[in-house]
Amino acid sequence: MSPLDLLDVDASLSAEERQIRTVVRQLVDEQVRPHVAGWYEEGRVPARDLAREFGKVGLLGMHLTGYGCAGSSAVAYGLACLELEAGDSGIRSLVSVQGALAMYAIWRYGSAEQKQHWLPTMAAGETIGCFALTEPDHGSDPASMNTRARRDGDDWVLHGTKMWITNATIADVAVIWARTDEGIRGFAVPTRTPGVTVREIRRKMSLRASVTGEISLDDVRLPATARLPEAVGLKAPLGCLTEARHGIVWGALGAARDCLETALEYARSRTQFGRPLAGFQLTQAKLADMAVEWSKGYLLALQLGRLADADRLRPDQVSVGKLNNVREALAIARQCRTILGANGVSGEYPVLRHANNLESVLTYEGTSEIHQLVIGQRLTGLSAFA
Ligand SMILES: Cc1cc2nc3c(=O)[nH]c(=O)nc-3n(C[C@H](O)[C@H](O)[C@H](O)COP(=O)(O)OP(=O)(O)OC[C@H]3O[C@@H](n4cnc5c(N)ncnc54)[C@H](O)[C@@H]3O)c2cc1C
Q1: N or C terminus: fewer CB in 10 A for the chain?
Q2: Which residues are catalytic?
Q3: pTM for the full model?
Q4: Ligand 1 centre from 145 Cα, in Å?
């Protein structure tokens, strides 16, 4: 049992959920942990190789059913996200974008042919997907997007630019959201289609073990079959985001746990003023407060996971989890950094890497402010932003 699980939440996990957690933890220990500091430093990650490894154990689209997907529970999926993000938020992002955004969009809104065409190889990690909603001028307000899709005979022609797209440079298929005369629609766009150009976004100071890119669509001509037939209006991409945000609620706890475990071990072994740092009351106060927040976050994640498994999870409840768990995980990472002193800023330890990553996690999939507004709307019945 983890010493961080102050409330014995682990005891309410099923044997299967614990088994999945063990498998993912081992995978992260073997395939991610030994290398991730180097990937982060270099700003490169062998994402395709990792995707194949993750595909072998059924991690990609694991909460979806059919088409080679594992069909696991939402809680099991959450636990997998937690373990992946204990390695690095960028690695969890690879899996989230593939499974909860790109695959989910096709699984939920695609035609039978689209599902059969894309999902089995995506589940295996042979085909990589990305999800392109954000634009250079429209992030929190995707309803104002500029990317257009117009009909030309039976074809669709897409024009516009998508920005900050995870997995963009390695993707075989991009789920592109565009404005049509009838409103927002989604398209499964093979990235080799003429007119699609992808540029990697370099110099990120966060999520460096993750590829991020800009996608330019210069009159990209697509057959009618590229449109996701069931995706109608902005609620379609927002539905995908609810899926992915649920994974983040859990994932952020993984980054925080890795920081806390590192700080605990460090505080026990580092001696100043003749005693271990862990023996000072001020250090214990920090550790206690962080462990309390972590435990509350774990309870929150489990409650949301159980609601999802009962098909009762509302988007505003996911906002509660995303807002709280990412905010607290970032606070924990920063506080752990102080316990490590100078070593806290070193890449030899994972803490500042996690803190830097969590800055992106705080922003993507709805910023903290947007989640506050969603919760505010739930409380007041008044929308302050839409
Ligand atoms: C590493 C990384 C990976 C990403 N991956 C993807 C991806 O795969 N696909 C994708 O589509 N997008 C992705 N994004 C984009 C991400 O979702 C957006 O950055 C996010 O939605 C915020 O948009 P913005 O950056 O344009 O900020 P803005 O919307 O310009 O917001 C700037 C600030 O203003 C605040 N703000 C905005 N509106 C309001 C309001 N009404 N009231 C109060 N405050 C407000 C915001 O909360 C924020 O603090 C990624 C981003 C990063 C950093």
Answers
A1: N
A2: 365
A3: 0.98
A4: 13
